[in-house]
Amino acid sequence: xxxxxxxxxxxxxVIKYWGKRDEDLIxxxxxxxxxxxxxxxxxxxxxIMCSPDFEDSKFWLNGVExxxxxxxxxxxxxxxxxxxxxxPSNAEMLRWNIRICSENNFPTAAGLASSAAGYACLxxxxxxxxxxxxDLSALARRGSGSACRSIYGGWVQWxxxxxxxxxxxxARVIEPSIHWPExxxxxxxxxxxxxxxxxxxxxxxxxxxxxxxxxxxxxxxPKRVTEMREAIKTKDFNxxxxxxxxxxNQFHAIALDTHPPCVYMNDTSHAISDMxxxxxxxxxxxxxxxxxxxxxxxxxxxxxxxxxEVLSLINECFPSTVAKSDYLRGIxxxxxx
Length: 337
Ligand code: DP6
Prior knowledge:
By secondary structure, the chain is an alpha+beta fold. The two termini are 28 Å apart. The strands form 4 sheets. A 5-stranded mixed sheet has the order 1-6-9-7-8. 38% of the residues lie in helices and 22% in strands. The chain has helices spanning 71-84, 114-130, 136-141, 199-209, 212-233, 237-257, 267-283, 304-317, 319-324, and strands spanning 2-9, 11-15, 20-22, 27-28, 32-36, 43-51, 58-61, 64-66, 97-104, 155-158, 171-175, 183-188, 288-292, 298-303, 331-332. Helix 1 packs parallel to helix 2. The protein has 9 helices and 15 strands. The mean pLDDT is 92. The chain binds ligand DP6. Residues 13, 16-18, 26, 32, 115-116, 144-146, 199-200, 293-294 line the site of ligand DP6. Residues 8-171 form the Diphosphomevalonate decarboxylase-like N-terminal domain. This is Diphosphomevalonate decarboxylase. InterPro entries: GHMP_kinase_C_sf (IPR036554), Mev_decarb (IPR005935), Mev_diP_decarb (IPR029765), MVD-like_N (IPR053859), Mvd1_C (IPR041431), Ribosomal_Su5_D2-typ_SF (IPR020568), Ribsml_uS5_D2-typ_fold_subgr (IPR014721). Its EC number is 4.1.1.33. It holds the Pfam family MDD_C.
C-alpha cells in the first residue's frame, strides 16, 4: 500500500478568468492574475491510498462519496497515469485501485475558490503518488481552470496560451509573496450557501450569449494584465486597487449581460463595495480593494497597516458578516513553491 497526503491553497483573482475557448481542455479566452493565500486559514487537503488489495476505486469529498465518472476527474487521472507510465517501475502500481479522500476547511462551492484548491491538491497528491515530475499547473487546469494558479504561491498569472492542445496554457509566478510582504486579504463570508449557478455554467452561458465578453477578452484584459503586472512589480497599491475593483465589476457586468443573467452579488455585497469606495474617498487614495467571484462573498485586498481600521469598520457596518466569518484575520499571501 502507498499513501500520500497533500494540502493546497486558495487563490483569489484580481484579473478574472471568465469564459473558455475549449471546454474539455479548459482553455480560457483571456489571461488572469491572482494572489495565492496562506494555507493557515483556508486550504484543501487530500489523502490518496493505492493498494493491490482494493477491489475498486472510491472518492470522498468532505466525507460524502462522489462519482469517479466526472469528466474532469477522469481527465486528470488519465493524464497523470499517461505521464506516470513513462517510468517502467510504475507499471504494477498503475494497475492498483485507489481511494481518494478530499476535504476543504471552508465552504464548498460558495464562490470561495474551493474547486481551485481542491483540484490543485488532488493533482499534486496524484503526481506525488506516481512520482510524476512535470508542470502541475497544466494538469490542475484539467480539473478546474482557476486551479492552475493555486499550484504556485505569491502573484500568479495564468497565460491563456494559443496552442490548440493547451500546452502553453499554464500558470507562472509574476512575483513571490515576499515581494509585497505587507499585503493582506480579508474574506467576508456574506453567505456560505452553495451558489445558484456554478462558475462553469455561468461562464459557458456568458460565452454563448454576452456581447460584452468578447470586448472584455480582446480589448480590455490584455491592457489590464500589463498594467496589473506593473502595479504589482512597483507595489503601486492605488493602481492595483483601481484595476482589481474595475475588473471585478466588469466580470459582474458580463454576468448580468448573460442571458438569462447570472446574479452573484447581493445587497450586502453592494453595500460592502459602497463602503470601500467611501473609505477610499475619505483617505484620498485607494487603500482597500474589493473583489467578488461567482458568489456574494467579498475578498478585500489591503496592506497590513489598514487591517485594524478596516476590521473595526466592517464590525460596525456588517456585524452579522463578521460573526460568520472565520477569515477576518488579515490573511497573508502564501509562500512561493
Ligand atoms: C469567477 O475555475 O471555477 O472565480 O474552469 O469551469 O472550473 P472552471 O471554472 P472556475 O472559475 C473561476 C471563476 C472566477 C474567476 C477566477 O478565479 O479567475
